[in-house]
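Quick one: structure tokens for this chain, please?
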Amino acid sequence: MVVSFLAFAAAVLLLLWLFQTVLLDDIYRALKMRDLERGSDTLAEYALDMVDEDFESVEKIADEIAKNDNVCISICKITDSRFGRRGVVLCDKHVNSLCFVHNIRSEQFLSDLYYKTAENGGEYVEEILLSEMFGGGEILEAESGANVIKAKLVDCGDFEYLMLFNTELVPLNSTVDTLRVQLIYISIILIVVALALAFIFSSRISKPIREMSKEASKLALGDYSVNFDGGNCSETMTLSATLNRAAYELSRLDRMQKDLIANVSHDLRTPLTMIAGYTEAMRDLPGEATPENMQIVIDETNRLTSLVNDMLEVSRYQNGEQILKLSEFNFTNVIRVTLERYAKLKERDGYSITFDADRDVAVYADEGRILQVIYNLINNAVNYAGEDKSVLIRQLVADDGSVTLEVIDNGIGIPAEDLPLVWERYYKVNDFHKRANMGTGLGLSIVKNILLLHGAQFGVRSRVGQGSCFWFTLPIAEAENNITE
């Protein structure tokens, strides 16, 4: 920051020194010559259309040009002498009678100037050093100043005029010395100000960055209670807000991962304990190797397999390794087949699972994956069905050629702020949802990934204390037979 401000100050000072001292004479000369050229071109252009009777109007224009462009103008009429040589008669002078062209008394000088102009195509410029004019012809250094004379011939029909334009180049040595002293003081002030600003701005920007760097080090060590303060600079404030959001998301993800580990550990320990207990009993106690005990061991083994398979499946979906096997099948019948799995649950625990459909419809999708979606949604509804233990599964056929399946429970519901998060891989709504009685707790994440692969619309509606409705929509096969894999 300090280096940048000093570099900027140095660049400004370099430009000031360059234009105010080194190039001042050249710029001054260029401007004076520009005024001389502009004045001569304007007056000559106007005089080309004049006749001798209109000479007064030319004089008025000459006065205006002389005042506007700060040049002296003299107009001379060219006459023939009796010896056959053309002569120059000074007709009038305009502005500043003390300038060089207004005080020319030598007819020879005017005649020489005329012939030089004629030989040069009607335009001639001559620069005369002041030291040469007043020093007996000795040419001294140009610091003494100079007169620049531009002569222009204008043919106006009956008469020919020699227009003389004069400007004086004043020596700028004293001016340059004055500016040089001023620039020394300006340079010192500018460097001091640049250093002060550099330290102020660097402190304002770098201090919050240093503080955020310390907090980021804590975050890297797993301390998610960090707070990033961006100070008063808009850029660092934006950065701090982003880092605070990242810290919050990391803490939430870490919490979800810990919850998942706890849940999975619990789910693994329960069937393992059951398997160990029953197998030990069958080994140690005569008559315990019954088909019923063997079935319990098989069921608990299947439960372990289901847990491991669900975790692997979520991982494959996240890595994009799953491929759909699309086919046309009876969507309504798949729902009925899924509900058959819950017959024993209804009989044993008193659940009421109702399916509402006015007709059978076919869809073009991956039948196995869609069955998995339906099963997971129903299983989720059963786990959180509430005291009435009722679940409604409703099939809705829309006029646009799509079918929507809604799975509705009357449980405790989900807070509005948590609705977007229920599909997350490690998500668990604390204080609102009990841990699943069945399955692995990864069901909704699997549902989300399967429906995303199908390009299906899905969502959830819920209010606390009034239950939840999970839904998804697929195109009916008759309406659309193509789903991009």
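The chain has twelve helices and twelve strands.
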